[in-house]
Amino acid sequence: LDCIADPTDRIALAAVLRGPCFTISDPTMVAVARRHYDLEETAKGWPELAPAARLIPEWRQMATYLSPSQLLETIDDDTGYSAVVANLPMGGRRLADWQAFVDWVRQTEVSSPDLFHLVRRLRRLVLDDIPVKRPAQAGANAVSIQTIHSAKGLEWPIVVVPSLSRGASGRPGSFTFDHEVGAALTQYNRDGAVVPTFMSLSLALQSARRSMDETRRLFYVAATRAKDHLLLTTPVVGGAHSMHAAVGEAIDAVIVDPLLPQCAKDRSPRVWLSEETIKPRLPRPLPPLPLAPALLEAVPWTVDEVAVTGLLDYATCPLRFRFVHVDGFPSALDTTRLFAAAASDADDAAPSADVGRGRATMLGVLTHLALEHDYATADQLPDDGTEKERATAIAYAEKFRTEAVFAVVNRNDDQRELPVRLRLGPITVSGIADRVGADYVLDFKTGRLSEPERFGQQLAVYAKALGKARAYLADLHHGRLYEFSAAELDGYFAQALRTAEALASGDFAPKPGREACLFCPFHEQCAAAGGQPACARAEGYERWD
């Protein structure tokens, strides 16, 4: 009902798509969300979304003349919702809840026949955490067998908890860890027998105590499921890790009369278990342990895989690579998403280099989408970015399609957005080639390109991974096409190997300079900049934005 009443509620839409009505898979949901399309547009490329794209608009139209209960019955007829939930685990309970909800809607719509008023009332019930009594479910002269975990929140007149002597089974793994005690690896002698250590014994003791506490909590849940009668069965002695051992003090204090017929005859209670008796006890503190020597040495940084763009970041300035890829500082694209609103409101003020670089990155993302999907209008692009950026992206895409300088690399049979992976010395490099032809690879650039050779390593990696002899760089801003020969690509590939080896060694020494520092979003935090960004701006260097 939320999804029908509010077309902008994407959370409700996702719940409907994933639920029993349409059962859309999570991978499909993630792929659709990343592309930022609306449902009807997305269904053209995803057949499994076609029923949802057809039915949901119809339901919204029906909501204008059907009552909410009639609308729910129509949804059930169209999707078979009740039949699906009846065949899920605990189907009887789910079906009873569904029927009770429809009945509640039917009673409520007498005073509020409008769908929007009903949804508003439902939201108030949820926000105010008002409990609603669940309908009773017919037992059908049967015994319900459930685990303690699945019985949480339910209640029966008679509950039987059998075999309290059974306990947890299994052996600890080869590695044990506790946030209070520490970690230990299982030690073995030459015969393969386990050799206990002080740390492993301490961890085993802590694990046993926590396991007993958890067992007591489970027993409390099981015992409180009974409304009238609770029947427990157990031998005199249980296992060391059994529920009997966990609640032994309470069980030993219980008076058990072996003459069960006599108990039934005089209806006198013979077993007394109070909530105070079976409540879990607080864990006892561990004895003090001698402190092990602290390991203060720095853990060496290692890398196994990096994106091609990350390789270029490292070649430009290793310290900037560390800020983004090791320390996790926001990238230029993240920076522009944080400050784009403020920058758009201050049109008279000069934008900062951080926002400028981020806007250039956003423009590149939009342009790549337009070229990949042959978009012709800005309305087809997602809402990320400004209206000006979407219009510029479409203009760049149209420039590539129509200008003669790009005709040699603008072929209908070219592959688009092709994933690339290549082992480059000690690390693996991955990326996405924009276009791949029969004997060449092409990469698009939308920034104000002044040094095309700076991207030589990227193109060399693409060409090597795809087995191409030539590479092109399309400067969509100035309308230029740069070609890299096989000999040039070999030279850049050798540079890429050296860059990968330096990256794997953990060398993050900065490379301050005019080009590197001017557009670096971390110049204010970087001591190696040495005022270089201010000097570059004073010289009137051209901004990216």
N-end to C-end Cα span:
45 Å
Rounded to an integer, what's the Rg over CA atoms? 34 Å
Number of strands: 12
**What is the CATH topology descriptor of the largest domain?**
Lambda Exonuclease, Chain A
Apparent shape: flat
CATH class descriptor of the largest domain: Alpha Beta
User: Number of helix segments?
Assistant: 23
**Uncertain stretches:** 255-272, 332-358, 531-545
Beta-strand residue percentage: 5-15%
Major beta sheet, specifics? Answer: 6 strands, mixed
Look at the helices and sheets and give the structural class: alpha/beta
CATH architecture of the largest domain: Alpha-Beta Complex
Task: Report mean pLDDT, rounded to a whole number.
Answer: 76
Helix content: 40-55%
Count of distinct structural domains: 3
Walk me through the structure.
The chain has 545 residues and is of the alpha/beta class. The protein folds into three domains: 2-127, PCRA, domain 4; 156-278, no CATH class; 305-538, Lambda Exonuclease, Chain A. It has helices at 2-5, 10-18, 26-35, 39-43, 50-62, 68-79, 81-86, 91-108, 115-127, 198-223, 243-246, 248-252, 260-266, 275-278, 308-316, 318-326, 332-345, 353-373, 387-402, 456-466, 486-504, 514-518, 532-538, and strands spanning 156-161, 175-178, 182-185, 187-188, 194-195, 226-232, 305-307, 415-424, 427-436, 440-445, 470-475, 480-484. Helix 15 (308-316) crosses helix 16 (318-326), helix 18 crosses helix 19 (387-402) and helix 20 packs across helix 21 (486-504). The longest helix is centred in the middle third of the chain and has 26 residues, at 198-223. Mean pLDDT is 76; it is low at 255-272, 332-358 and 531-545.
